[in-house]
Amino acid sequence: MSKLVECxxxxxxxxxxxxxxxxxxxxxxxxVKILDWTMDGDHNRSVVTFAxxxxxxxxxxxxxxxxxxxxxxxxxxxxxxPRIGAADVVPFIPIGGVTMAECVALxxxxxxxxxxxxxxxxxxxxxxxxxxxxxNLADVRRGEYEGLKEEISRPERxxxxxxxxxxxxxxxxxxxxxxxxxxxxxxxxxxxxxxxxAIARALRAKDGxxxxxxxxxxxxxxxxQVQVSMNLVDYERTxxxxxxxxxxxxxxxxxxxxxxxxxxxxxxxxxxxGSLEYYLQSESFSRDQVLEVKLNA
Amino acid sequence: MSKLVECxxxxxxxxxxxxxxxxxxxxxxxxVKILDWTMDGDHNRSVVTFAxxxxxxxxxxxxxxxxxxxxxxxxxxxxxxPRIGAADVVPFIPIGGVTMAECVALxxxxxxxxxxxxxxxxxxxxxxxxxxxxxNLADVRRGEYEGLKEEISRPERxxxxxxxxxxxxxxxxxxxxxxxxxxxxxxxxxxxxxxxxAIARALRAKDGxxxxxxxxxxxxxxxxQVQVSMNLVDYERTxxxxxxxxxxxxxxxxxxxxxxxxxxxxxxxxxxxGSLEYYLQSESFSRDQVLEVKLNA
Lengths: 297, 297
Fold this sequence. Notes:
2 copies of one chain form a homodimer.
Chain A: E1 4-7, E2 10-11, H1 17-28, E3 33-40, E4 45-52, H2 54-71, E5 87-96, H3 100-118, E6 122-126, H4 137-140, H5 144-151, E7 173-177, E8 182-188, H6 193-203, E9 213-220, E10 225-232, H7 240-252, E11 258-264, H8 269-280, E12 282-284, H9 291-296
Parallel strand pairs in A: 5-7, 6-7
Antiparallel strand pairs in A: 1-4, 1-5, 2-4, 2-5, 3-4, 8-10, 8-11, 9-10
Helix pairs in contact in A: 1-2, 2-3, 6-7
């Protein structure tokens, strides 16, 4: 099996499609496969998903950061989503034949080159973080572009690579490595937001729930329903089925049924097979038994 | 998506690995991908699974039948499994970008060439059958090699292609087209064979169960358990989850739990995703959301 790394960079541009297209094109030239890209006008932000061999992914990420830096001016950027730079967050994700350690090394090499070649300050986060307080993206991004500009020269906010001052237009960038994230939403047969919030609290790690679950209650106005919206940040240790069945268990306390679920975006095959094996009570199942996997082997 | 046909020929040789290897090699030369091959000494039979573009699969099947005919003598063949020829059964299965009608056409073209080039009588079965009474493989194979040899000249047993006499060493061959078959076993927390048999009857089509399920009770002596062993012959219309949950429902009547299940051999991704969508109550899920599917697209 060849080595495969996924990269999901977020850019601070969600209103000018020609800019996002230019960023995507810059990456695509480096021999990676663009899997998806989306824009959000309110957030004024775009998310690109691509994958390829580690070296190609490194070059593509660098090319996209360079393109974003040339076309986005953070001094003029407004949007609903927290951000500190034109290329805001760039995570590497091990997908196949690659360890997390290799993705961490890739993140550090990219950080070093972004600092040297583009003179943009770089923060390392999640698995690539150099200090525990930088693991969490929200902590790195505290104060956003405007606030970090004031604080960047303070010792505790100095970047891991590059100058201790913001790039005049591109700001700063957060680079790191993490596991695949699954966006999983469970819709409930009630319009009572208190129920959705209570279940979200019961599910999420920080309030005593499952270790690798982030959860929020969300209102689905058109449907007159509420939703428990989750991010599963380590599906190997907190699988989809466990999150769903725990939502069901908590909802039963209020006499509320699960009416449906959705997985948003891409999901690794192993995450799906793992949950199916639970429901089927499989004693022995290997992904090599999937006809299409065997065909592509 | 390119056109993809699977072929799962069965050969009357399960004791001489060099013969099976030669048969496999003859097919492999035609540019198909060998996915699996297994031998069974008691049955004196082997099963090969391969896939590829339709024309390559046709040539590979022909080459394997030719090789089997040259190396297997049905006059000397003994084994526990019913059979009528050296190459005994050759089904084509639509896997991707191919209709059942195309697989039926492929089966007929192969039948015509086997008859003409190898002088082996050919029967068409399942979706490729020319008469309703030949759809079912067991009916075509009635009397086995020895019995068919006597009856082949009778009008009702005349082959679809080729001479109305057995090939002196290779016998006859059954060629056809069918949907993918899933071998799915459910293990029960009891050693009571009466329970396994009763559940198998409740599940299988011919006794009032699910239309596309064949089921048998099987004893698992080493485990002191029994099993409902099923073939799901149309997973789109009778999916895995429905068979499993119906076994569970029937077993509950006897206070017997499902202790585990197994899928034997290869299974199409869509069959797995379809059942997972049931358990997750998915409102919208597309196979394009599977990262690996998207990557290979």
